[in-house]
TrEMBL record:
PANTHER family, alphabetized: ABC TRANSPORTER PERMEASE PROTEIN, OLIGOPEPTIDE TRANSPORT SYSTEM PERMEASE PROTEIN APPC
A Pfam family this chain is assigned to: OppC_N
UniProt GO BP: transmembrane transport
PROSITE patterns: ABC_TM1
Membrane topology: Multi-pass membrane protein
Designated name of the protein: ABC transporter permease
Basic residues composition-biased segments: 11-20
Record-annotated ABC transmembrane type-1 domain positions: 101-293
Subcellular location per the Swiss-Prot or TrEMBL entry: Cell membrane
UniProt xrefs under CDD domains: TM_PBP2
Chief location: membrane
Region feature Disordered, mapped onto this chain: 1-21
Amino acid sequence: MSDTLTEQKPKSVKPPKQKKPASLWSDAWYDLRRSKVFIIAAVMIAILVVMSIIPGLFSSVNAFDPTTCDLTKARQGVSAAHIFGTDNQGCDTYSRVIYGARISIMVGVFSTVVTTLIGGLLGLLAGFYGRWTDTILSRVAEIFFAIPSTLGALLILALVGRDNAGIWTVVLALSVLAWPMVLRIMRAAVMSAKSQDYVLAARALGAGPGRLMGRHILPNALAPVIVVATMNMGVFIAAEAALSFLGVGIQSPDISWGLMIADARNRFLQAPEALLFPALFLSLTVLAFVMLGDAVRDALDPKLR
C-alpha cells in the first residue's frame, strides 16, 4: 500500500467528577430545605426580625407613634384608625405591638448567645479534660440547677430594683441560671466525640488539645447544642414576658409584650384587644422558635432520618 496510515491519537477521556462526601451538616440542610415546618417557622421568624429592626416599616400602616397617647381615646375597639384598638392610656395598640417585638427578640437572642457561649465553653472543657475539671464544673452547674430559672431571675431582678431593670439586666438574670443546661449537653456530646476513632487517630499523630477540641471534637459536638439554643430563644422570650408581667422585668417607657399584657389585664372586659393582640404575637413568636427547633432537631439527629 502506497498510502501511509496515519495514527490517530485516542481522545483523552476526562474522569468523572467525584462528588464530595456527604456530611451531617449538608444532609441536615438538604432536609431542612424540604421541611414545611422549617420553612413556615423561618418565614415567621424572618418577619419578626425585620419587625424588630425596622418597626417603622410596619407601623407606617396607621402612622401612630407608640409613645403618643390620648386619654380621650382610651379603650377604643378595633376601627379603621386603630386597627388593634387602643389601650387604657389611649395609645395605639398596633404600633405598640410592632415596637414591642424589638425588646422580646433582643432578649431572646442575647440570652441565647450568652448561655450558649458560657455553657458551651465550660461543657467543652469539662468533657474533654474530665477528672477534677469535670468534677468542679459539674458541681458548680448542679448548684445553679437547684434554683428554678424563672424564680431565680425574679429574685435577681427584685434585688436589682425596678429603676435599674432594663434589657441587659433581664438578659443577665436569665443567662446566669440557664447556662448549666447547655454545659451538660455539650459535655455529653464532647465525651461521646472524643472516644471516636478520628479523634484517637489525630491524638496519635501528635495533635494538641487545642487542635483536637477546635478541629475534631467541637464541630461534631455542636449539633445538640444548636437544637437547644434554637428552642431556648422561644423560652427566653416567654420568660421575659412573664417577668415583665410580674412587674420586675422591662419597665415603662420601654415597650414589651409582657408589659402590655400586664397593663391591660385589669380592663380586659372593657378593652380585650389591648391584651389579646400582644398575647397573640407573643404566642406566635414562641411557637415559631419551637417549630424551628423541632425541625433542626429532626434534621440533625441521624436516628430520626
